[in-house]
């Protein structure tokens, strides 16, 4: 399916960014995993049926119990786009367009409602951004070598 291909494009972008940013790219991917896990919890709470249960769709309808809200594909797309944007602005623009296309395709094929994909994009982007903020707060002192700590310079004794 086309949406799965877009997720593959995100994986290739993360692989490319891995060579430049190693730890930050890995943590960006970790933010995507946290966003996906969050969406699974929301699905269990909301339990909204998919539109393909009541009307024809272009794609095969997932099994009963695979709820519609929020769209997992959209969550992953939104989280990936946000993480990639934080690492590389040019690829971030490409990722944002891919995320919108992936979300739209879920509605076009009839397996999600518009509000499913909009909520998925927002949830993914917000969780990914939140993970990035938390990680930055934790890593910054180590990476900067405590640059904001007071520095005392003493002349060398001979």
UniProtKB/TrEMBL annotation:
Primary localization class, coarse: membrane
One annotated Gene Ontology cellular component of this protein: plasma membrane
Pfam families: PAP2
Membrane topology designation: Multi-pass membrane protein
Keyword Hydrolase: yes
Transmembrane region(s): 5-21, 27-46, 91-111, 117-135
Protein name: Phosphatidic acid phosphatase type 2/haloperoxidase domain-containing protein
Species assigned in the record: Lentzea guizhouensis
